[in-house]
Amino acid sequence: MLCKQNLETPTVKAMLNTYHSSKLCSNQCGSSLVQTIDAPLPLVWSLIRRFENPQGYKLFVKKCTMLAGDGGIGSVREIMVTSGLPAGVSVERLDKLDDDKHVLKFSIIGGDHRLVNYSSTITVHEEEEKYGGKTVAIESYVVDVPAGNSVEDTCSFANTIIACNLRSLAKITEEMVCKAK
Ligand code: A8S
């Protein structure tokens, strides 16, 4: 299941092919979401790259505690989720952090929620001038479909959270640009 995006520019297609086309096993599902952001890439990346500070833009994080490391590859964080969601905590490991290519990957390795074997990749790139020249963030994930759940329900749950996070990332960085003017 791939979210239909109106943003199929050559660069987005290339990024999807290079970083967001992980193979799915039969009991898994995944998707990718694209968000255009009217703020400079270095600013957008500076928020994304802080694995130890997900509350910098993620909406449903009440608290983040580092269980290992301080934000480098291999670091493990425990996230307390805001109330009202069907989860309390999530334990997550940073698998990749590439400051040159602007790629971050993390996996969920524990918690009391239903996103088992979840792993995600977020990348950012600058769009070509003829397509608007803005910053584009792409986030994709793969996750197990729990027994008794459908692919649609599993993906729409994850997609909703990720879409909120990406919109929040855009809003926060766009406001930072606005205030600096
Ligand atoms: C992210 C993406 C997701 C986070 C989900 C999908 C989660 O933090 C929330 C509710 C859950 O039930 C699962 O990039 C979990 O954070 C908000 C606790 C993992």
UniProtKB/TrEMBL annotation:
GO BP: any one term: abscisic acid-activated signaling pathway
Write out the entry's keywords from A to Z: Abscisic acid signaling pathway, Cell membrane, Cytoplasm, Membrane, Nucleus, Protein phosphatase inhibitor, Receptor
Keyword Cytoplasm included in the entry's annotation: yes
Q: Name one GO molecular function term.
A: abscisic acid binding
For this record, the Gene Ontology CC terms, alphabetical, are: cytoplasm; nucleus; plasma membrane
Offer one Pfam family short name for this entry: Polyketide_cyc2
Q: Which Gene3D superfamilies match?
A: 3.30.530.20
Q: What is its main location?
A: membrane
- Keyword Membrane in the entry? The reply is yes
* InterPro entries associated with the record: Plant_def-hormone_signal (IPR050279), Polyketide_cyclase/dehydratase (IPR019587), START-like_dom_sf (IPR023393)
Residue intervals passing through the bilayer: none
Q: Where in the cell is it found?
A: Cell membrane; Cytoplasm; Nucleus
Q: Which PANTHER family match?
A: ABSCISIC ACID RECEPTOR PYL11-RELATED, OS08G0374000 PROTEIN-RELATED
Family in the record: Belongs to the PYR/PYL/RCAR abscisic acid intracellular receptor family.
The entry's protein name is Uncharacterized protein
Query: What species is this protein from?
Result: Sphenostylis stenocarpa
Biological classification of the source:
Eukaryota, Viridiplantae, Streptophyta, Embryophyta, Tracheophyta
